[in-house]
């Protein structure tokens, strides 16, 4: 199943993609919450309603004309693992890790499919990183490795946009990974039952139609199960938590000279069996004085 967040009149509406339509999961014929994280939190209790939705008379809208937002617009946590593909490590000239290294992306960086990624006024060193995204579906702690995939609600596509000079200047990488608009996710969540092996998926990134990254999740140093087992030793993982699982070789920073994203570019990331996430790149509009919203 493909679960989406519809944006209608500025409000999120949970939806299920059926063919070329989106079923409104909040319709009384289905009766699920409007916020997709709340649907995920229901776990197995949501499955009868989701199965019913596909054949119900609930309201439907054409997928082609639907405005899709990030599936999880404000995740309780948005975490990324660094240096998780051998070919990417080689191109960046760093040592192969023996331990997992994690950073946080600010929740305000999240945007959805078709939303603009900004080249900020603070830097031009803006890079792309196509990645498989994991969405947690159960509140969990101390998850055994052999049961780690049981807590996955599904998978999405992530572009871990990175501002390289800010990333290098901060050991935690938080600021270089957390600029506004630098967390595109989507276009939907494909439920875990549709992805039997998250370690057997191709990951590709195009910039203006040019293939820049062409990798496979089979080359991850730490698997999705490794990540969940490791993180859950530290903290409770809540429904809607998004994990960005690392990027293969081909990032702009590894070129000579570097190939930074610029206004007018379009970036598309495809994860096999999950979907394609496309975002245009624009210049940040800087207001005179504080940007109060």
Write the layout of secondary structure elements.
Blueprint lengths: L1 E7 L2 E8 L2 E4 L11 H6 L5 H9 L4 E3 L5 E2 L8 E5 L3 H7 L8 E4 L5 E2 L5 E3 L6 E2 L2 E7 L15 E8 L2 E2 H6 L4 H4 L5 E9 L10 E6 L2 E7 L7 H8 L10 E3 L21 E6 L3 E9 L10
Parallel strand pairs: 6-17, 8-14, 9-19
Antiparallel strand pairs: 1-2, 1-5, 1-14, 2-3, 3-4, 6-7, 10-13, 11-12, 11-17, 12-14, 15-16, 15-18, 18-19
Comma- or semicolon-separated keywords:
Fumarylacetoacetate hydrolase, domain 2, 33% strand, alpha+beta, five-stranded mixed sheet, 293 residues, 14% helix, twelve-stranded mixed sheet, globular
Number of domains: 2
Nearest-integer average pLDDT: 95
Main sheet specs = 12 strands, mixed
Q: β content, as a range?
A: 25-35%
Quick overview of this protein structure:
This protein is of the alpha+beta class and about 290 residues long. Helix content is about 15%, strand content about 35%.
């Amino acid at each position: 199943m493909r679960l989406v967040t519809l944006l209608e009149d500025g409000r999120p509406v949970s939806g299920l993609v059926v063919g070329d339509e989106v079923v409104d999961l909040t319709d009384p014929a289905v009766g699920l919450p409007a916020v997709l994280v709340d649907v995920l939190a229901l776990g197995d209790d949501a499955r009868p309603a989701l199965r019913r939705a596909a054949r119900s008379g609930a309201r439907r809208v054409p997928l082609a004309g639907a405005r899709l937002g990030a599936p999880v617009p404000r995740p309780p946590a948005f975490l990324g693992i660094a240096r998780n593909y051998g070919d990417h490590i080689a191109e960046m000239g760093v040592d192969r890790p023996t331990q997992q290294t994690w950073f946080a992306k600010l929740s305000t960086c999240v945007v959805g499919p078709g939303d603009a990624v900004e080249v900020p006024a603070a830097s031009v060193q803006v890079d792309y990183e196509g990645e498989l995204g994991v969405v947690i579906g159960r509140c969990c702690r101390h998850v055994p490795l052999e049961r780690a995939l049981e807590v996955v609600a599904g998978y999405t596509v992530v572009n871990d946009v990175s501002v390289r000079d800010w990333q290098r200047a901060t050991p935690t990488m938080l600021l270089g990974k957390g600029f506004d608009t630098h967390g595109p996710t989507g276009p939907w969540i494909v439920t875990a039952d549709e992805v039997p092996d998250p370690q057997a998926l191709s990951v590709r990134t195009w910039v203006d139609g040019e293939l820049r990254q062409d990798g496979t999740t089979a080359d991850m140093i730490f698997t999705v199960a490794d990540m969940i087992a490791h993180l859950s030793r530290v903290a409770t993982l809540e429904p809607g938590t998004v994990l960005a699982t690392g990027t293969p070789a081909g990032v702009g920073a590894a070129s000579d000279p570097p190939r930074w994203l610029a206004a007018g570019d379009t970036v598309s990331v495809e994860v096999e069996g999950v979907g394609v996430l496309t975002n245009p790149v624009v210049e940040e509009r800087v207001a005179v004085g504080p940007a109060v919203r």
